[in-house]
Specification:
The complex is a heterotrimer of chains A (about 650), B (about 250) and C (about 400). Chain A has four domains: about 150 residues, no CATH class; about 25 residues, no CATH class; about 110 residues, no CATH class; about 300 residues, ABC transporter involved in vitamin B12 uptake, BtuC, CATH 1.10.3470. Helices cover about 60% and strands about 10% of the residues of chain A. Chain A contains 26 helices and twelve strands. Chain A has a five-stranded antiparallel beta sheet with strand order 4-3-2-1-5. In chain A, strands 6-10-7 form a three-stranded antiparallel beta sheet. A two-stranded antiparallel sheet of chain A has the order 8-9. In chain A, a hairpin with a 4-residue loop joins strand 3 and strand 4. In chain A, helix 11 crosses helix 16 and helix 20 packs antiparallel against helix 23. Chain A is extended. Chain B is an alpha/beta fold and about 250 residues long. Chain B has a single domain, classed as Rossmann fold. Chain B contains ten helices and ten strands. A six-stranded mixed beta sheet of chain B has the order 6-7-8-3-9-10, with helices on both faces. Chain B has a four-stranded antiparallel beta sheet with strand order 2-1-4-5, covered by helices on one side. Chain C has about 400 residues and is an all-alpha fold. Chain C has 15 helices and four strands. In chain C, strands 1-2 form a two-stranded antiparallel ribbon. A two-stranded antiparallel ribbon of chain C has the order 3-4. Chain C has one domain. Classes of the chains: A alpha+beta (about 650), B alpha/beta (about 250), C mainly alpha (about 400). At the B-C interface, helix 2, helix 3 and helix 4 of B face helix 9, helix 10 and helix 11 of C. Chain A: One of its GO terms (molecular function) is transmembrane transporter activity. Chain A: It is a multi-pass membrane protein. Chain A: Keywords: Amino-acid transport, Cell membrane, Membrane, Signal, Transmembrane, Transmembrane helix, Transport.
Chain lengths: ~650, ~250, ~400
Amino acid sequence: MRALILALLLAFSAMPVLAQTAAEIVAANAAQIEKPSRQTIGPVIEQLAASGDPQAATILEAWGDKRLGLRKADGVFFLIEKTGDGWALTALDGTAAGTAAKADVTELKPNAGVRGLIATALVQFTLSDPDRAKREAALGSIAKDPKAEALAPLAASIGAEDDPVLKAQKERLLGLLAIRFGADTATRVAAIEGFGRDLGLDLRAALNPLVATTRIAFANDLPEGANLARELRAGRELTEEEAYDLLVAGGLAPARLTVADARKALVANLKDGAVGGVALAALDSQAERDRAYNALEAAGTVPPAATDAEVTEAVARHRFAETYAEPDPAVTAAAEAALAKIGTKVGAMQGADLLLDALSLASIYFLAAIGLAITFGVMRVINMAHGEFIMMGAYTGYVVQQWITNYTLSIIVALPLAFAVTFAAGVAMERLVIRHLYKRPLETLLATFGISIAMQQLAKNIFGTQARPLTAPGWLDGALVFNDVVSISYIRIAIFVMAMLFLTFFLWLMKRTRLGLEVRAVTQNPSMAASMGIDPDRINMLTFGIGSGIAGIAGVAIGLFAKVTSELGSDYIVQSFMTVVVGGVGNIWGTLAGAVLIGTLQKGIEWFNPSNTLAAQTYMILFIILFIQFRPRGIIALKGRAAGD
Amino acid sequence: MSALLEVSGVSVSFDGFRAINNLSFTIGPAELRAIIGPNGAGKTTFMDIVTGKTRPDAGTVSFGEKSVSLLSLTEAEIARAGVGRKFQRPTVFEDQTVHENLIMALKAHRSPWRVLVWREAAADRDKVAALAEEVGLLDALPRKAGELSHGQKQWLEIGMLLAQEPRLLLVDEPAAGMTLAEREHTTRLLVDMARTRAVVVVEHDMDFVRRLNCKVTVLHEGAVLAEGSLDHVTKNSDVIDVYLGRG
Amino acid sequence: MSRSFLAKNPSVLTFLLVLAIFTLTVTILSDAYGLAFVSTSFIKTLGKTLCLCLVALAMDLIWGYAGILSLGHMAFFALGGYGLGMWLMYARTEEIVVAALAQDVIPATAEEIRQGIATQIFGVVGASEFPAIWVFAHSFWLQIALVVLVPGGLAAVFGWLAFRSRVTGVYLSILTQAMTLALALYLFQNDSGLRGNNGLSGLQNLPGLDGVSQDRLSVWFLWGSALALGLGYVLLAWVVSGKFGSVIRAIRDDEQRVRFLGYSVEGYKLFVFTLTAVIAAIAGALYYPQAGIINPAELAPIASIYLAVWVAIGGRGRLYGAVIGAAFVSIVSSWFTGGRVPDVPLGFYTISWVDWWSVVLGLCFVLVTLFAPKGIGGLFDLVAGVRTPDRKGAALGPDDGALMEREAQE
């Protein structure tokens, strides 16, 4: 890379320096400048730009901005500026030259084409402009629209660049330009190789046009000057139909007879209830129609068109190939090699990115499922309204944001509030419904589904059917970017962190607190627990409340990236149950494993078929159904008598 | 006399706990056998293994003249092969009548299609009536099983086992919760049954075992500790140590 | 079918009588054949309700009798509808395309007709080729076979997988729900071959019956639905009356015990699951021509839950309960959600039943589960003086699906 830049610098620093001031050049080419045309003005602009006169930039800029004027009296050019009813004049060497009446000066109005040329010429000046922002903008404009002309000025500006960041950018851009517009093969190949294993999108954008191919058909030998990518054989690399289309496109064969065309020709030549000797009524099969058309073709009434046999024969007589648009084989070879190298690395990076995606989806599923891990996993209570608790949490967050407009503060308030609201709802539901249905899981399932239906409709009645926004604080906007391929948004990191916090909380609650001990006691043997002074009713109520409360907090988190609607919960309920069941009921690590499995799986399937997330969900559920065949008790199963039957 | 059931070298463990440890056991075609042992000796697990509810980690279980391995069969196939089981708590279908319970147990084809087109014939009615009389439930035939007393349910279950016509019967604590008169009736039934088939009785109650007057196998920690007549095993010092001694 | 079957099951005769009287009454009151007292759209609603009663019967067999709370039977119902809908749509479009092509000078080839039908049907999802699953759509009899075979086959495969690995109770319910969701999501895709979320439409027009008005068609379908319901009722009453019924009720209450009796529990469950799936599919095939349109939303898991709700409200474990529940809830639902019930102004808020009906239904369902597990069927017991056994709150068996004490009859 360094050597290449040095070479380029040397090449361009040898440019001749003309000992002429800008003003003299303008004067010498006055006629052309007054009425410039895009075709002929080029050399003049170049001469100005290369003059080395510091005024040249000012003059060009003024010209481009339509601030160059011609005094009608003597034909002298001035930089002009509007003042009231006239012009303030500045001579081309920068000295003030008084004023002129409006009618005395002709404004020069170069057309868009000429202005474009001027702008390009100006680039070299802006590239060395003392203002860093201007230099950066100039670099940006070159990168957006790379042109061969930018190569020389860019190379020239690197030596004087003192900002290390901009210098690196300039060197990179110079390399990219050299790939496309380098003077000879060696320069371009060196430029390509100079990038090594770089992954930049800009590099790929520069390389891809080099290896773009077109398909051609030819009779015997490859056309002169074509840069062959590979030969294509009809029937293998391309179908006969594609091959024939190439022949037609290349003018090497007549168009194929389409059904519609044949029909039209037959209708046009219908005489006395028959065409080409075939009766009209018999024309309801393709074979008869072909026969009629061939008869017409033989009689010369319709133009010849290729039938299937003719197509096969024509295809066999020709060869087909893919050729590069870029004529230089050495360059295409180097570009292919570079792209292949990049491809491998990009593949690995995409894998890493996919993993990050999967992880963040897994943490979402885990968040949605962790409340269930308590109510279903530990207490074995099927709560189909769990999704609606998630929805309640999300709506709580929305309502809080209506009152507290500071997003950070509102989230801080919403999290405990959502917990409180759903905790209360959970306790109420446990007391009123679930308590009476312990040991009747199917009835619990249906009753809680009734509650779920009612709560969804209630949310619709209160908040309407349209989605409500729950806005994340500003510091969660944006993404952590590793490179052009791998990145993860901060909100997903936050959800991941939250999932981990919940996991820790759950473990602490169940393993380290009195409540956790009592919960485990009650779920294992309620009557024994009761006889030891634990109130099972109270414990069940609290446990269910905590499980529901966690669902509420998860709802706030999920609401931050998903739209808050009354269906928010039901979108997650099946997946949540799957997460718990696949992981293994009654084990929080199982739930975690289930979430990771389902998240990875869904992302993996989406990767194979990115356009279709519906299909991904379908296949994921099918996989889960099959998975349960082989591990009916989940990934992490309780064994032996403890598992029950 | 060749054995009807032969269990050899069977082991099974739950989460590292060895419930059955290299157990071997045989019983002949028409024999009454009592199995005793302290809690956790593996009595119920032993029955679970024979009936296919639990799969052992090692060992073989073969049944009948052709020595069919029971380990590759499902619970239903084992039952059809001729192994009947009576649970500790009476398990009858409480929502159905005594008649229906017995009809279901009656030896017949068990496949869904055959059962679907099966209709009750006079012979079946007679057989059910005979069975009901044998277990003393003739008057209760049209009643729902859920309404029966505890002892009556035990008999109904025994009646269902008889209807199955098994060649081997596994009976788990048949006398638990019975009155003295009911016990005597049960003893008689079991001894009668053992004339034509093998009967294995798991029991805690020494008195009841003595009444059965049969060979006794003592289990301890998943293995056979002693075997012989009740008097013989009660004199065994090992047995006294682990069972009666702690009694 | 012996005399003793009807003698032992007097409810069958009563049911058939009520059904016959109902059908006759509706016919007499219809636009086409009588007094024009009942509108055609209401006759369609009644016909559809009969189909829902049939699928509720199937649900009662699988849940009320065999104890398997399947949340997938409305998926089979919809699959049946799709199956017949494919033929209806194909044949109907074929008529239109043939008529259109007949205007041309040159007679159309078979290929052109097929192409025309494909473009008509699949233009909406941007395709113009028939997907492979439409290969039998041209033939009524083949497609009718598919109406039974596809849902039956799916149920058999799914049931075999699920029952084989001894998935029971709520796990099975969740698994069937997942199956339904997967199927619905699949059908929502445009490249599913069934027109994505557009579904199949225009099913109310029967091919070859252009001259018959919808007035008369609706009555014909009512007859067909009533016939299917009657046959279904007799079939299921026969299935549950004998030893088979005993065995599946025994499986519901204590499947382990049934295994030790020598019955292969998995085989019975699979049999019942598949049979009920087929009945559901037939009900669906009769329902959707009356509805006129079917789309993947019909497969949403919630539909199957509603099915369970109907059976529970009617009273599970008795066939007439399922029929009453389905008829009652679906008619009351359509009454409330149809906007025909006046709103209740409370001064500060007006209760609009279109919005609040779901809330009421959901809560009703909780109340029925909690306080009236016998559902509406329990009223018959009250009249007949049947008491519930008092067993101090214990269920009748150890399994999840077992009858509750208060559901049983003494």
